[in-house]
Design brief:
Blueprint: H1 6-28, H2 33-55, H3 61-68, H4 71-84, H5 98-109, H6 114-133, H7 148-179, H8 184-205, H9 226-229, H10 235-251, H11 261-268, H12 272-283, H13 287-305, H14 310-317, H15 322-333, H16 337-353
Helix pairs in contact: 1-2, 1-8, 2-3, 2-4, 2-8, 3-5, 4-6, 5-6, 6-7, 7-8, 10-12, 11-12, 13-14, 13-15, 13-16
């Protein structure tokens, strides 16, 4: 029977994710170039891993090392794009190719140094991605507010997976020193497959929506520590929060499924960081939490006052997907949309019968 290694299954899933990403980007006018490149690198590495460990093609090891070192910088650039709005790598990103080129040189002149370089690279980029994630969901200023939570979790998973990959390489080196590499094959094959699966799923859940189709990056919002974000509101914070409240009340901007922090800040002619800080300090929630709260209240009104289908209510309130709508509605009300409608309709019927 023909053996089909698990990494080949990951390739098929990546192809499905890529098709979905292309279609969504075309419909919304987004630039998903970096994430498509990321899918491509993940797919190529999955093919190489499957061929190496499924069919014993050891001659692919040097190519696996080169392609593997392209994963961390591209993952960092892709998730950083959710913060600065740049949908494709720019000229300033070329230095990130230094690691793959360095691996090529080491393979030619000093193979023993390849392992150490890979450990340093994965650990460094893992830390860089986690540092981006440290700013919280509002750090992803160009991700849609409806999907910023999954995007932030995807970034966090990617960061920790990169760090775990570096740690697994350290374990392999220890195994070679202690037992001559007795368990290294199992660690490499299992760890690489699991890592690629986590990378692929994380990339699939990231939302590249809102990224610009230009080479010019938007101003990247600075990180805030939790203490800064939760501090006392200043008079400027209060004024900005009031502007946001008024804008939402007068225009119902929260119903825009493509709304993100950057677009909100542009409407107010304020820095994205200032808007995020104001909502955090005045309302005690992230921007996505604030906007989704308004969407849930709109959905409550529609569910109790109209006979719209639940899916239509989700779209009318500003949610892009029914799954996000159900999750946020449950979080805000403690019940599902259908249960909420039944309860409200029952109360109304009971009141009318009195």
């Amino acid at each position: 029977m023909l053996l089909i290694p698990l990494p080949f299954v990951i390739v098929v899933l990546l192809f499905v994710f890529a098709v979905r990403l292309v279609r969504g980007a075309a419909e919304r006018g987004d630039d998903a170039t970096t994430f498509l490149l990321l899918y491509g690198v993940y797919g190529l590495q999955s093919l190489l891993v499957g061929a190496r460990w499924g069919y014993g093609m050891t001659e692919l090891l040097p190519l696996m090392a080169v392609v593997g070192t392209a994963v961390p910088p591209l993952a960092y650039i892709a998730f950083r794009g959710l913060a600065n709005g740049r949908g494709r790598p720019g000229l300033s990103d070329w230095p990130h190719l230094g690691f793959p080129f360095a691996v090529i040189l080491l393979l030619l002149f000093w193979r023993d140094g390849v392992g150490l370089l890979i450990i340093i690279e994965f650990a460094a980029y893992g830390a860089a991605v986690l540092l981006l994630a440290r700013g919280g969901p509002d750090r992803l200023a160009t991700a849609r507010l409806d999907g910023v939570g999954p995007s932030h979790r995807a970034m966090t998973v990617t960061g920790w997976t990169l760090v775990a990959s570096a740690l697994s390489d350290i374990v392999i080196n220890i195994d070679f020193a202690v037992s001559g590499g007795r368990y290294s094959g199992l660690v490499v094959s299992t760890g690489t497959t699991i890592g690629l699966a986590l990378f692929s799923l994380a990339a699939a859940f990231a939302d590249p929506g809102g990224q610009e189709r230009t080479e010019t990056a938007l101003a990247e919002p600075e990180d805030e520590t939790p203490e800064q974000a939760g501090g006392d509101a200043s008079s400027e914070d209060t004024a900005i929060a009031a502007e946001v409240d008024r804008l939402m009340r007068e225009t119902e901007l929260y119903r825009d499924v493509d709304l993100n922090l950057m677009r909100l800040a542009r409407r107010l002619k304020r820095p994205a960081r200032a808007v995020s800080q104001a909502i955090n300090r005045v309302h005690g929630v992230s921007v996505s939490g604030y906007v989704n709260g308004l969407r849930v209240r709109q959905a409550q009104r529609l569910l109790s006052e109209t006979d719209m289908a639940v899916t239509q209510v989700a779209f009318e309130a500003g949610f892009m997907t029914k799954s996000n709508f159900n999750r946020e509605f449950l979080r805000g009300t403690g019940m599902s949309p259908s249960a909420y409608r039944r309860e409200k309709k029952g109360l109304i019927s009971g009141a009318e019968g009195v």
